[in-house]
Amino acid sequence: MLDQSAWPRVRRLLRYLEQFKGCFSSRLQRTSLRRYLQGLLGDSPRKSMQAMLERVTDPGHYQTFQHFITHATWDWQPVWRRLLELLPVREGMLIIDDTSFPKQGTHSVGVARQYCGALGKIANCQVATTALLWAKGRAWILGAELYLPNEWTRDRARCDRVYVPRTIRFQEKWRLAMTLLRRARAAGVTVTAVLADAAYGDVTVFRETLHRLHLPYALGISSHLTVFGARPRLALPVVGLRGGRPPTRFQLLDEVTPIAVSQLVATLPARAWRRVTWRNEHQATRWRAEFLAVRVTPAHQWRAGRLAPEVWLLAQRPVAGTRVAKYFFIHLPATTPLKQLVWLAHQRWAIEQQYEQLKDELGLDHFEGRTYPGWHRHVVLTAVAYTFLQQERSRTRGHPLTFPAVRALVCEVFTALYFAAHPKQVDYIIQLRRHLPLRI
Predict the structure, then answer these.
(1) DSSP 236
(2) Dist CA 281 CA 343 (whole Å)
(3) 265-306 pLDDT, tens digit each
(4) By the number of CB atoms within 10 A of the CB, which of 169, 248, 258, 357 ranks highest?
(5) Which H or E run contains 276?
(6) 225/182 same-domain check
(7) Residue 305 lies in a domain
(8) Are 273 and 291 in contact (CB under 8 A)?
């Protein structure tokens, strides 16, 4: 007899999938949705379509399964919008980051020689910009956009072979990140802060946009970025008496000059460093390092008469160390305590947990198709599965379920669904058990 505790999960899963019904135009597509999610949530170590289909309780034809991802007519954007509407958590920190997918060959969409975080070096890979909502110790994926390098967007014939829409143009990763941010806010998600690494923190326009949106942030930055240690005053360009081309660059009235953040930190006294201990939510490990925080004005576009808003410069180094390991720009009030600055800067640890679960448990990077639509469909369905699992985890009290444990529970759900649809199979197994020493 089936475990009765599985039936509530069956009902929750069916209700959850029913809410995406409007995103798919036919019964066959809705059936394929259930099969694909079963494959993602299954125990197959490899989440390629062939491997998943072998573990699905009611597999159907492989051609139908593959067609659902690669050539069917459904659009992934409505699925993302519906997923954002159903998100049970509506407020939290937005973590922007890149994730990479190592690939062989050159035919898969977006593949190029570029930095691959999964390998820690320049390699052949795809790269995606992702947005994660971090709230109350739990991660929720909000969106993902595939980055297409210039070498792809300039080659129309190459794009056509993998069905890249002709409306797609080259966009920097920070622009993809802003698209994800705007979509989340448009869906009613309240963003309390934005976190990202130096690939985004070094981009002046990205920081300026966050200021215009009045969003706090903690962004990693490179050591060579320049700042003013004190708020400078600017003078209008002085028109010369001899005529000629009028000057357009503003002048500094005070004896201050832009300085690299690494040089500024090196000039500060040893007593400016403070030792801070912190612990990330739901982690037993306590971390310790030395930090220095000072108010600075990023030195960009001042010659055009525009001074950037004042922000915190946070520097981090190991305990008893002398070499600074990390630098951050943090947009919080001038009265913010050092410990709060440190805590916010280190909330990006959640992104590593998300990628580990999405890749190792749900096969985010296992997709073997080559097309633009196929990649996006696989990713959004992975997000749908991930969100359901996170909802199931949030229902537990006391010690939360581990990700593999809750996935095993959902596998039990699909087994229960199969036997509910094929009751004669239960009778067959019971009869078989009477004659063979089966351990079931």
Answers:
(1) P
(2) 10
(3) 999 999 999 999 988 766 677 889 999 999 999 988 766 657
(4) 357
(5) strand 274-278
(6) no
(7) yes
(8) yes
